[in-house]
Design a protein that fits this description.
Structural class of chain A: alpha/beta
Low-confidence stretches of chain A: none
Oligomer: homodimer
Number of domains of chain A: 2
Number of strands of chain A: 12
Largest interface: A-B, 54 and 54 residues
Shape of chain A: globular
Radius of gyration of chain A: 20 Å
CATH class of the largest domain in chain A: Alpha Beta
Order of helices and strands of chain A: EHEHEHHEHEHEHEEHEHEEHEH
CATH topology of the largest domain in chain A: Methyltransferase, Cobalt-precorrin-4 Transmethylase, Domain 2
Largest sheet of chain A: 5 strands, parallel
CATH superfamily of the largest domain in chain A: Tetrapyrrole methylase, C-terminal domain
Distance between the termini of chain A: 48 Å
Mean pLDDT of chain A: 90
Number of helices of chain A: 11
Chain lengths: ~270, ~270
């Protein structure tokens, strides 16, 4: 059996009782850490203590190239991949799921909270969100704006937008890729303030070039830092001010506020 | 302390370890059951056995009128409201949260999976969903179509739509309301086939009256029955056929498929 076990958003104790039982029945546990962040050095051992088993950290390479080995093992014994959030949020785990089915390996998904539903804790109603977008790091050569147009489409329909912020883990520099060196850059997590600056830059540029946007420097944004952790922080500010808000360490995400009703406004006032 | 504890989607074991610890620290546990379904008679006792405490079922009336009492108690001891899915998906719990804050009662939300992220298990990517809609029961006098226009807007943007299906628990007939009798109708849960029939009726009517829709009788739909339960079922069919698909008992929901990429198509083929 292959288990895909969601760990939720906070510490090891956010695993479900069912997830914990499944993990304890496994002979091998992989921990997938390239789509999210391990809070601190302690946590893998805390997770290991809770489960009572060793947990093997695995990266995209292992997960995408080590499928066969993993699925072979899962034919005779229980294997689990532990994933922060909900297991089927990311495409990688969908392909693992599919390959398991193709190899006739029974596979079970154990769901958990992810930022896509936990964002409700800021008081914006989940039913009033449009499409979720990902804001990516800009480089000198690569400054995509496709996420911006999706935010605009949501705002035109009165809808909020959840913005997931870029995470770069185990990336290599162009030089190291060319020289085929397995030297990895330090991980990078986009902060809400950085995301706000990117959005402000697009707003300003489009205004100057005569294509004003629905998103304004005064549009309310909600920054969500470390949701589900003990030190989570939520702050609501106009976009322009959000560029200067320091919410501490990652993981951050941000919601752009569309049309609101009274209860939503009341909730947002708690974070201003 | 007031805890709002998400129970996730399946049985009692879908509570998180953190949620279980919090529940065990409480002197009173309320179980909110009017926005979702208790799988069978057994489950409240199974939940009670797991937590090791009595659980008081509570309905909307108690929750909305019994706030003060609950919040008063939460000043001196730990109280929890247990909610199927994630606690802040529904507006009721947002107002409880707000009122707790206003009364200076510390409140903690313990997140869990909800259909809004677990729908990813059908293989449609969560990033490709637009606004979530609720399809409500039609009566002879009340046949709203606002959800339909939201589905249309999503389809025009190539996006999938998660349709939550109506649940009627502890509703009274007009006669019983007028006579002020607390006699409640049996609970009603909309099935995916019923939802498909409502959508088909709107498609047909608009076609006849010369306003053809993007949603077609051939549009693929994914019915999701009892997601997270041991006997969950997922079926993908054209809308027209979905009207006749029997997926067994509730809770059902349904996704309307927008534009798909290869991995999504591959996943959907598993359910056809």
């Amino acid at each position: 059996m292959l288990y895909l076990i969601g760990l939720g958003l906070g510490g090891p104790e956010d695993i479900t009782v069912r997830g914990l039982q499944a993990a304890r029945s496994c002979s091998k546990l992989y921990f997938e850490l390239y789509t999210s962040l391990l809070p601190d050095g302690q946590d893998l051992s805390r997770l290991e203590n809770l489960v009572g088993k060793a947990v093997l950290p695995c990266d995209r390479e292992l997960l995408e190239n080590g499928y066969e080995q993993m699925l072979d093992a899962a034919k005779g014994e229980n294997i689990a991949v532990l994933v922060i959030g909900d297991p089927l949020g990311a495409t990688t785990h969908c392909s693992l799921y599919l390959q398991a089915k193709e190899c006739n390996v029974p596979v079970e998904v154990i769901h958990n909270a992810s930022i896509l539903n936990a964002v409700g804790c800021c008081g914006l109603q989940l039913y009033n969100f449009g499409r979720t977008v990902s804001i990516v790091f800009w480089t000198a050569e690569y400054r995509p704006e496709s996420f911006f147009d999706k935010i605009e489409a949501n705002l035109k329909n009165g809808l909020h937008t959840l913005c997931l912020l870029d995470i770069k883990v185990k990336e290599r520099s162009v030089e190291n890729i060319i020289k085929d060196r397995k030297i990895y850059e330090p991980p990078q997590y986009m902060l809400a303030s950085e995301a706000a600056c990117i959005l402000m830059e697009i707003v300003e540029r489009r205004r100057r070039t005569g294509s004003p946007t629905v998103l304004q420097s005064s549009t309310r944004c909600v920054a969500l830092a470390r949701i589900g952790w003990q030190d989570q922080r939520i702050v609501c500010r106009p976009l322009k001010e959000m560029c200067h808000v320091n919410l501490g360490p990652p993981v951050h995400s941000m919601a752009i506020v569309g049309e609101t009703h009274d209860l939503e406004d009341e909730m947002l006032r708690m974070w201003t």
